[in-house]
Amino acid sequence: MAKSLTPIPYLFAILLLHVVSANSFAHPSLYNHFHKCLKKHTKPPSDQATISTILFAQSNVSYPSVLRNYIRNPRFNTSSTPKPSLIITPLHESHVQSTVICAKSVIPIQIKIRSGGHDYEGVSYISDEPFIILDLFNLRDVTVDAENGVTVIQASATRTLLLNREEKKNPRLPRRSLPHRRRRWPPQRRRVRQHAPARTLEQNAIDLVVQWQEVAPRVDDRLFMRLLVSPVSSATLRGQKTVRVSVVTLFLGSADELVTLLEKEFPVLGLNKKNCNELTWIQSVLWWASYNYTKPETLLDRRLNSADFLKRKSDYVQNPISRDRLEWIWKKMIELKSILFVFNPYGGRMSEISSDAMPFPHRAGDLFKIQYSVTWEEAGSVEKNYTTQAKMLYSYMTPFVSRNPRSAYLNYRDLDIGINTFGENSYEEGEVYGLKYFNDKFERLVKVKSEVDPENFFRNEQSIPVLPKKG
Ligand SMILES: Cc1cc2nc3c(=O)[nH]c(=O)nc-3n(C[C@H](O)[C@H](O)[C@H](O)COP(=O)(O)OP(=O)(O)OC[C@H]3O[C@@H](n4cnc5c(N)ncnc54)[C@H](O)[C@@H]3O)c2cc1C
Ligand SMILES: *[C@@H]1O[C@H](CO)[C@@H](O)[C@H](O)[C@H]1NC(C)=O
Ligand SMILES: *[C@@H]1O[C@H](CO)[C@@H](O)[C@H](O)[C@H]1NC(C)=O
Ligand SMILES: *[C@@H]1O[C@H](CO)[C@@H](O)[C@H](O)[C@H]1NC(C)=O
Ligand SMILES: *[C@@H]1O[C@H](CO)[C@@H](O)[C@H](O)[C@H]1NC(C)=O
After folding, report:
1. Could you tell me where the Basic residues compositional bias lies (predicted)?
2. Is any atom of ligand 4 closer than 6 Å to the C-beta of 291?
3. Closest Cα to atom 21, ligand 1: which residue?
């Protein structure tokens, strides 16, 4: 008995330490410090007047809602999730600059930067060290300088805001300033078509996937064909599970053209004109976002403070996966129950851009990207079950995906593939996830990082480390 009690005083000591250190950083002096410092460093002086409206201390009644509004994964919305000592919500670029100066200078404190997207792992608003959040949700302006051909889009702007401004201010602008071929920006009047037939195993879903792998990465550049694979209950075999496969497509052309093209290239799909909808580009955006056929203004709704629990992972496929292997994978998915796949074809424009032209490395040679996706609604202990499903499927997929490195997609942020503690081995730790996200571009990114931020002030669990100091 006595023995089993000994750990308790130890536990207390840890808890006390934790509380003390957390308190010292949540102290009101931090608020005062920032208030004063921002006033001093914000230029022009006209931007100083608004400083008292952009600082949210933990004691502020609005703090919880400001923090939650852009939490996009409730796994990171619990009472034990580390909270920022302060949230700063800039109204002007000058506020961003002075926040960085103040966080770096007087009390060095970590900054987490949040633009309000779909950060899967909460790295934009959580840290194990004392930190503040620089929340950019007010910075959503789009300014167009047609004369010089420069468009500035602030970090938090959405696609609809961009479209709204351009349509209202100057309807012809997209064509001139944003060449649509390069940016995939079709002019508004052009019609776009899509379809989504679904197949189960009993309906030759395997044939569909076999042919999709061959066609999707190399077909007409105007055609994007995403493939979804999910376990479902069988409609024909009572009480049995099967796998459903569906293809969701965006085509920049007419329905007739698409039907003709796919009859030739992808006959297994059996596309019918009935499966196609001819839409304007903005209506197709609404459709992709599952908003159906509502007004484009619906996209301005930022769905604040609402999200499902989720875990995502990613892989790249470089050789088509054979029929037998697909069958084996589907069986595993049925066993696991809740996890599904999204296959995104590469090829097309992606493989025309040279792999060393920019940091994004996944180019020629990648047939498609896999997103592993599991989503649930209940809080608490079920989380482990779902995240384990993701880990197991990822492990089953090892023989069928890229290796050395096993590549991953940065936007589908996944802390399982390695994190950095920024100790002595930060370079080696960084290599583990850095090579997966950036392949051989990692080395170059480390050089850039070492030059522009040698102190590693801007960092998160998977940021690029600096070169080890010599000597
Ligand atoms: C339902 C859903 C669907 C998605 N679909 C897709 C998809 O189809 N394609 C795709 O590519 N991705 C997709 N994503 C992923 C998502 O788009 C990315 O995670 C995206 O990069 C988030 O960008 P953000 O700028 O809003 O960043 P945040 O979520 O705010 O933060 C992401 C990271 O960027 C950093 N950061 C944010 N702003 C700045 C800044 N101004 N300067 C420096 N660092 C900054 C943050 O600190 C953090 O590390 C999806 C996510 C979800 C949840
Ligand atoms: C909360 O913070 C906001 C933004 O800085 C400020 O305008 C407001 O006065 C604060 N409220 C209280 C009660 O301190
Ligand atoms: C976060 O949790 C609170 C309750 O604790 C809830 O009201 C809120 O809707 C949640 N927000 C998100 C984004 O999960
Ligand atoms: C769109 O339509 C589908 C099917 O009719 C429905 O399940 C879904 O809730 C709708 N989405 C929205 C945002 O209205
Ligand atoms: C998840 O829970 C279900 C139902 O309780 C169980 O059958 C399954 O084995 C669990 N999966 C994992 C990966 O823990």
Report:
1. 171-196
2. yes
3. 411
